[in-house]
Amino acid sequence: MTDRRLHLLPYDYLVIGYCLFMTLLILAVGRPLGNYTYEIIFYSSMAAVAALVIRYVGEAPTGWRRFIRLLYPALMFTFFYRATSGTMFLLFDRFFDSSLVSFEYSVLGFEPSLVIDRSYLSPFLNELFSAGYFAYYLMIPALLVYLYLKRKDELIRRFLTAACIAFFVSYFLFFLYPIEGPRYYLAGQYLHPIEGPFFRKLVNIAIDRGAVHGGCMPSSHVAVGLIVLAYTFKISRKIGWLLVPVVIGLAIGTVWGRFHYASDVVVGALIGVGAIILVDRRYDRWIKRRPNPVAYHSLGVEHVS
Q1: pLDDT of res. 7
Q2: Which of 24, 48, 206, 260 is the most buried (most CB within 10 A)?
Q3: Rounded CA gap, 161 and 10, in Å?
Q4: Contact (Cβ atoms closer than 8 angstroms) between residue 168 and residue 14
Q5: Is residue 87 assigned to a domain?
């Protein structure tokens, strides 16, 4: 008899759980409920899509089925991010930038992006940190394409589990503590525009076309950038060390570009590190099996250079 039991991976539980939680939360507290019709349909539909993938693609698929089964969470991340714009004021009716800025002044004695505006802007530095920021949009696809072509499926599963944790925790905080960011809240205090001939323009295009208003606390860019870095080290230490300054540039670039406060970066980094540690320590228990030689081979640990 064919075993027709469904074998769910950790990221399956995370994707479906996140969608169902958001749907139920909106139904419970979203008022007026008619304003959240799109979000209810969206999260319900994404849960249904994930369930269909799990049910019909199969346990050990090949070809395009392998692509869908392995990578479907990554294909959803952008849509999940965009959907946060509709739930930004699910619990509160305003942004809390004033309290966050006051906190940073009490700790640092200054607001970093204002200091950068007064003293450090230059075409070279603008381009350098814009390049670091823009690299975020290439990191996840580059890592996943490499792992997919090398058939390191187990490493893909672990990476996407950590990424799901980081993204979904970040998206919860978006509406638990709504922050619009310095480019909005401090707009009237900046004296100089941030200019650059290439990467700054690319960043502006990406932000204008894809960013939501709000969703700054925490920086999910930094959280997932650290996860990409950690899993790159699992493949190659040489490439990992080359990526370190890029991730540092990403973290600085979020503040330099006026997209995030320093606090957003710190909290994002903590979430990223937490997701890495959690997956490293608990993943094998989650899938209810011991690591085996096949899994370790697919992780590629023995090939670390």
Answers
A1: 81
A2: 260
A3: 6
A4: yes
A5: no
